[in-house]
Amino acid sequence: MSIVGGPVDTGDLIGLAGRRGPRRSRRRIPPREAVRSTVIALVSTVVVLGALALAITSSPNWPDVQHAFFDGEIFAYSLPKVVEAFGTNVSLFLIAEVLILVVGLLLAVIRGLPGPAFFPLRMIATIYVDFFRAVPGLLIIALLGFGIPALDLPGVPSDTFFWAVIALTLVYSAYVSEVYRAGIESVHWSQEAAARSLGLTRLQALRHVIVPQAVRRVIPPLLNDFIGLQKDTVLVSTLGVVEIFRESSIIKAAKFNFTPYIAVALVFVLITIPLARLTDWLIARDRAAQESSR
After folding, report:
1. Judging by beta carbons within 10 Å of its beta carbon (0-12, 13-18, 19+), is residue 287 exposed, middle or buried?
2. DSSP 8-state class, residue 5
3. CA-CA distance, 36 to 34, in Å (whole number)?
4. I want to staple 110 with a disulfide (CB 3.0 to 4.6 A). Which of 53, 54, 117, 125 is the partner?
Protein backbone atom coordinates (compact mmCIF):
# COMPACT_ATOMS: atom_id res chain seq x y z
CA MET A 1 0.00 0.00 0.00
CA SER A 2 1.34 3.41 -0.94
CA ILE A 3 1.79 6.39 1.38
CA VAL A 4 -0.54 9.39 1.50
CA GLY A 5 -0.45 11.33 -1.74
CA GLY A 6 0.61 8.34 -3.84
CA PRO A 7 -1.54 6.07 -5.97
CA VAL A 8 -4.28 4.19 -4.15
CA ASP A 9 -4.61 0.40 -4.42
CA THR A 10 -8.14 -0.59 -3.45
CA GLY A 11 -6.95 -4.15 -2.90
CA ASP A 12 -4.72 -2.85 -0.09
CA LEU A 13 -7.67 -0.98 1.37
CA ILE A 14 -9.72 -4.16 1.49
CA GLY A 15 -6.96 -5.81 3.49
CA LEU A 16 -7.07 -3.09 6.16
CA ALA A 17 -10.35 -4.46 7.55
CA GLY A 18 -8.38 -7.05 9.51
CA ARG A 19 -7.56 -10.73 9.34
CA ARG A 20 -9.52 -13.58 10.84
CA GLY A 21 -8.54 -16.93 12.22
CA PRO A 22 -7.64 -20.10 10.37
CA ARG A 23 -10.00 -21.60 7.85
CA ARG A 24 -12.55 -23.99 9.29
CA SER A 25 -12.57 -27.48 7.86
CA ARG A 26 -15.74 -29.06 6.49
CA ARG A 27 -17.00 -32.45 7.54
CA ARG A 28 -16.56 -34.93 4.72
CA ILE A 29 -19.37 -37.40 4.14
CA PRO A 30 -18.20 -41.00 3.58
CA PRO A 31 -18.94 -42.33 0.05
CA ARG A 32 -21.27 -45.09 1.26
CA GLU A 33 -23.28 -42.67 3.39
CA ALA A 34 -23.53 -40.24 0.48
CA VAL A 35 -24.82 -42.96 -1.86
CA ARG A 36 -27.30 -44.17 0.73
CA SER A 37 -28.62 -40.64 1.32
CA THR A 38 -28.99 -40.07 -2.42
CA VAL A 39 -30.92 -43.32 -2.91
CA ILE A 40 -33.25 -42.53 -0.01
CA ALA A 41 -33.88 -39.04 -1.39
CA LEU A 42 -34.68 -40.38 -4.86
CA VAL A 43 -36.99 -43.11 -3.57
CA SER A 44 -38.88 -40.77 -1.26
CA THR A 45 -39.26 -38.23 -4.08
CA VAL A 46 -40.65 -40.85 -6.46
CA VAL A 47 -43.09 -42.09 -3.81
CA VAL A 48 -44.39 -38.61 -2.95
CA LEU A 49 -44.74 -37.53 -6.58
CA GLY A 50 -46.33 -40.83 -7.53
CA ALA A 51 -48.87 -40.57 -4.73
CA LEU A 52 -49.68 -37.00 -5.73
CA ALA A 53 -50.11 -37.97 -9.40
CA LEU A 54 -52.32 -40.92 -8.45
CA ALA A 55 -54.52 -38.72 -6.24
CA ILE A 56 -54.98 -36.18 -9.04
CA THR A 57 -55.61 -38.61 -11.91
CA SER A 58 -58.05 -40.69 -9.87
CA SER A 59 -60.28 -37.73 -9.00
CA PRO A 60 -63.80 -37.85 -10.50
CA ASN A 61 -63.41 -34.78 -12.72
CA TRP A 62 -59.87 -35.48 -13.93
CA PRO A 63 -60.94 -36.15 -17.58
CA ASP A 64 -62.57 -32.72 -17.78
CA VAL A 65 -59.54 -31.02 -16.23
CA GLN A 66 -57.21 -32.91 -18.54
CA HIS A 67 -59.14 -31.75 -21.60
CA ALA A 68 -59.33 -28.14 -20.35
CA PHE A 69 -55.66 -27.76 -19.33
CA PHE A 70 -53.63 -30.52 -21.01
CA ASP A 71 -54.88 -30.81 -24.57
CA GLY A 72 -51.89 -31.99 -26.61
CA GLU A 73 -53.10 -30.61 -29.94
CA ILE A 74 -53.75 -27.13 -28.54
CA PHE A 75 -50.44 -27.23 -26.66
CA ALA A 76 -48.55 -27.96 -29.89
CA TYR A 77 -50.40 -25.09 -31.56
CA SER A 78 -49.84 -22.63 -28.69
CA LEU A 79 -46.20 -23.25 -27.80
CA PRO A 80 -44.56 -21.69 -30.90
CA LYS A 81 -46.80 -18.65 -30.68
CA VAL A 82 -46.17 -17.97 -26.99
CA VAL A 83 -42.43 -18.52 -27.44
CA GLU A 84 -42.44 -15.92 -30.21
CA ALA A 85 -44.39 -13.49 -28.02
CA PHE A 86 -41.88 -14.09 -25.21
CA GLY A 87 -39.46 -11.90 -27.18
CA THR A 88 -41.47 -8.89 -26.00
CA ASN A 89 -41.00 -9.96 -22.38
CA VAL A 90 -37.27 -10.32 -22.97
CA SER A 91 -37.09 -6.81 -24.43
CA LEU A 92 -39.02 -5.40 -21.48
CA PHE A 93 -36.75 -7.24 -19.06
CA LEU A 94 -33.46 -6.18 -20.63
CA ILE A 95 -34.34 -2.51 -21.01
CA ALA A 96 -35.84 -2.25 -17.52
CA GLU A 97 -32.93 -4.15 -15.95
CA VAL A 98 -30.36 -1.63 -17.17
CA LEU A 99 -32.44 1.29 -15.92
CA ILE A 100 -33.13 -0.41 -12.59
CA LEU A 101 -29.44 -1.05 -11.91
CA VAL A 102 -28.61 2.62 -12.46
CA VAL A 103 -31.60 4.15 -10.65
CA GLY A 104 -31.38 1.70 -7.74
CA LEU A 105 -27.68 2.43 -7.16
CA LEU A 106 -28.32 6.17 -7.37
CA LEU A 107 -31.08 5.92 -4.76
CA ALA A 108 -28.89 3.85 -2.44
CA VAL A 109 -26.01 6.33 -2.70
CA ILE A 110 -28.32 9.30 -2.08
CA ARG A 111 -29.79 7.66 1.02
CA GLY A 112 -26.29 7.17 2.37
CA LEU A 113 -25.11 10.75 1.91
CA PRO A 114 -24.12 12.21 5.32
CA GLY A 115 -24.77 15.66 6.73
CA PRO A 116 -27.79 17.94 7.10
CA ALA A 117 -27.16 19.56 3.69
CA PHE A 118 -28.25 16.35 1.94
CA PHE A 119 -31.33 15.82 4.12
CA PRO A 120 -33.81 16.93 1.37
CA LEU A 121 -32.30 14.44 -1.09
CA ARG A 122 -32.31 11.67 1.50
CA MET A 123 -35.95 12.43 2.33
CA ILE A 124 -37.01 12.35 -1.34
CA ALA A 125 -35.18 9.06 -1.91
CA THR A 126 -36.74 7.54 1.22
CA ILE A 127 -40.25 8.61 0.21
CA TYR A 128 -39.67 7.20 -3.28
CA VAL A 129 -38.55 3.83 -1.93
CA ASP A 130 -41.33 3.60 0.65
CA PHE A 131 -44.04 4.56 -1.84
CA PHE A 132 -43.11 2.18 -4.65
CA ARG A 133 -42.55 -0.69 -2.23
CA ALA A 134 -45.96 -0.09 -0.68
CA VAL A 135 -48.10 0.22 -3.83
CA PRO A 136 -48.75 -2.99 -5.84
CA GLY A 137 -46.81 -3.10 -9.10
CA LEU A 138 -49.95 -3.87 -11.12
CA LEU A 139 -51.53 -0.66 -9.86
CA ILE A 140 -48.45 1.39 -10.84
CA ILE A 141 -48.52 -0.14 -14.31
CA ALA A 142 -52.21 0.67 -14.73
CA LEU A 143 -51.89 4.24 -13.41
CA LEU A 144 -48.97 5.10 -15.68
CA GLY A 145 -50.03 3.09 -18.72
CA PHE A 146 -53.58 4.41 -18.78
CA GLY A 147 -53.31 7.69 -16.86
CA ILE A 148 -50.36 9.45 -18.49
CA PRO A 149 -51.43 8.88 -22.14
CA ALA A 150 -54.97 10.00 -21.20
CA LEU A 151 -53.58 13.43 -20.25
CA ASP A 152 -52.54 13.94 -23.89
CA LEU A 153 -49.57 16.08 -22.89
CA PRO A 154 -47.52 17.47 -25.79
CA GLY A 155 -44.21 15.67 -26.25
CA VAL A 156 -45.10 12.88 -23.81
CA PRO A 157 -45.06 9.38 -25.36
CA SER A 158 -48.31 7.43 -25.36
CA ASP A 159 -46.80 4.08 -26.33
CA THR A 160 -47.85 1.38 -23.87
CA PHE A 161 -44.50 -0.42 -24.16
CA PHE A 162 -42.70 2.75 -23.06
CA TRP A 163 -44.86 3.18 -19.97
CA ALA A 164 -44.59 -0.51 -19.17
CA VAL A 165 -40.80 -0.14 -19.01
CA ILE A 166 -41.09 3.01 -16.88
CA ALA A 167 -43.52 1.37 -14.45
CA LEU A 168 -41.34 -1.73 -13.99
CA THR A 169 -38.30 0.48 -13.51
CA LEU A 170 -39.97 2.61 -10.85
CA VAL A 171 -41.22 -0.38 -8.87
CA TYR A 172 -38.10 -2.53 -8.98
CA SER A 173 -35.68 0.35 -8.45
CA ALA A 174 -37.14 0.74 -4.97
CA TYR A 175 -36.40 -2.89 -4.12
CA VAL A 176 -32.98 -2.95 -5.76
CA SER A 177 -31.94 0.24 -3.97
CA GLU A 178 -32.49 -1.53 -0.65
CA VAL A 179 -30.31 -4.41 -1.81
CA TYR A 180 -27.57 -1.94 -2.79
CA ARG A 181 -27.94 -0.08 0.50
CA ALA A 182 -27.58 -3.30 2.49
CA GLY A 183 -24.45 -4.11 0.50
CA ILE A 184 -22.98 -0.66 1.13
CA GLU A 185 -23.69 -0.85 4.85
CA SER A 186 -22.12 -4.32 5.02
CA VAL A 187 -18.73 -2.90 4.05
CA HIS A 188 -16.75 -2.43 7.24
CA TRP A 189 -16.28 1.17 8.37
CA SER A 190 -12.51 0.66 8.40
CA GLN A 191 -12.57 0.54 4.59
CA GLU A 192 -13.72 4.15 4.41
CA ALA A 193 -11.41 5.15 7.24
CA ALA A 194 -8.43 3.67 5.39
CA ALA A 195 -9.45 5.43 2.17
CA ARG A 196 -9.86 8.76 3.93
CA SER A 197 -6.47 8.35 5.61
CA LEU A 198 -4.94 8.05 2.14
CA GLY A 199 -6.38 11.38 1.11
CA LEU A 200 -9.59 10.34 -0.65
CA THR A 201 -12.72 12.39 -0.15
CA ARG A 202 -15.97 10.85 1.02
CA LEU A 203 -17.30 10.60 -2.55
CA GLN A 204 -14.01 9.19 -3.85
CA ALA A 205 -13.98 6.55 -1.14
CA LEU A 206 -17.58 5.69 -1.96
CA ARG A 207 -16.82 5.40 -5.67
CA HIS A 208 -13.49 3.59 -5.61
CA VAL A 209 -13.64 1.52 -2.41
CA ILE A 210 -17.09 1.01 -0.90
CA VAL A 211 -19.40 0.69 -3.92
CA PRO A 212 -17.21 -1.84 -5.83
CA GLN A 213 -17.14 -4.11 -2.77
CA ALA A 214 -20.87 -3.66 -2.17
CA VAL A 215 -21.78 -4.47 -5.78
CA ARG A 216 -19.82 -7.73 -5.69
CA ARG A 217 -21.60 -8.75 -2.49
CA VAL A 218 -25.13 -8.06 -3.73
CA ILE A 219 -24.95 -9.85 -7.09
CA PRO A 220 -26.83 -12.98 -5.84
CA PRO A 221 -29.68 -10.95 -4.23
CA LEU A 222 -29.91 -8.84 -7.38
CA LEU A 223 -30.33 -11.97 -9.46
CA ASN A 224 -33.24 -12.99 -7.23
CA ASP A 225 -34.89 -9.61 -7.83
CA PHE A 226 -34.39 -9.91 -11.58
CA ILE A 227 -35.95 -13.37 -11.60
CA GLY A 228 -39.00 -11.70 -10.08
CA LEU A 229 -38.79 -8.91 -12.66
CA GLN A 230 -38.72 -11.41 -15.49
CA LYS A 231 -41.94 -13.00 -14.24
CA ASP A 232 -43.62 -9.67 -13.54
CA THR A 233 -43.25 -8.59 -17.17
CA VAL A 234 -46.53 -10.45 -17.75
CA LEU A 235 -48.29 -7.74 -15.71
CA VAL A 236 -47.98 -5.31 -18.62
CA SER A 237 -50.55 -7.41 -20.48
CA THR A 238 -53.15 -5.25 -18.70
CA LEU A 239 -52.03 -2.35 -20.93
CA GLY A 240 -52.62 -4.34 -24.09
CA VAL A 241 -48.98 -5.11 -24.79
CA VAL A 242 -48.94 -8.37 -26.74
CA GLU A 243 -46.43 -10.38 -24.74
CA ILE A 244 -46.43 -14.04 -23.76
CA PHE A 245 -49.39 -13.94 -21.36
CA ARG A 246 -51.48 -11.71 -23.61
CA GLU A 247 -50.83 -14.02 -26.54
CA SER A 248 -51.86 -17.05 -24.49
CA SER A 249 -55.05 -15.27 -23.43
CA ILE A 250 -55.89 -14.57 -27.08
CA ILE A 251 -55.40 -18.24 -27.98
CA LYS A 252 -57.38 -19.33 -24.91
CA ALA A 253 -60.31 -17.16 -25.95
CA ALA A 254 -60.17 -18.51 -29.50
CA LYS A 255 -59.89 -22.18 -28.51
CA PHE A 256 -62.05 -22.08 -25.35
CA ASN A 257 -59.26 -23.97 -23.58
CA PHE A 258 -56.73 -23.18 -20.84
CA THR A 259 -53.87 -25.22 -22.31
CA PRO A 260 -52.04 -22.10 -23.63
CA TYR A 261 -51.49 -21.07 -20.00
CA ILE A 262 -49.66 -24.36 -19.42
CA ALA A 263 -47.40 -23.52 -22.36
CA VAL A 264 -46.64 -20.15 -20.75
CA ALA A 265 -45.87 -21.81 -17.44
CA LEU A 266 -43.49 -24.23 -19.17
CA VAL A 267 -41.57 -21.38 -20.83
CA PHE A 268 -41.09 -19.57 -17.51
CA VAL A 269 -40.07 -22.77 -15.73
CA LEU A 270 -37.42 -23.50 -18.37
CA ILE A 271 -36.06 -19.95 -18.07
CA THR A 272 -36.39 -19.33 -14.32
CA ILE A 273 -35.09 -22.57 -12.82
CA PRO A 274 -31.63 -22.34 -14.48
CA LEU A 275 -31.38 -18.73 -13.28
CA ALA A 276 -32.30 -19.82 -9.75
CA ARG A 277 -29.61 -22.52 -9.83
CA LEU A 278 -27.11 -19.96 -11.11
CA THR A 279 -27.99 -17.73 -8.17
CA ASP A 280 -27.47 -20.61 -5.73
CA TRP A 281 -24.11 -21.39 -7.33
CA LEU A 282 -22.97 -17.78 -7.04
CA ILE A 283 -24.02 -17.68 -3.38
CA ALA A 284 -22.13 -20.91 -2.67
CA ARG A 285 -19.05 -19.63 -4.49
CA ASP A 286 -19.14 -16.36 -2.57
CA ARG A 287 -19.48 -18.24 0.73
CA ALA A 288 -16.57 -20.50 -0.18
CA ALA A 289 -14.43 -17.50 -1.10
CA GLN A 290 -15.20 -15.87 2.25
CA GLU A 291 -14.31 -19.04 4.14
CA SER A 292 -11.06 -19.49 2.22
CA SER A 293 -10.01 -15.94 3.13
CA ARG A 294 -10.41 -16.60 6.85
Report:
1. exposed
2. T
3. 5
4. 125
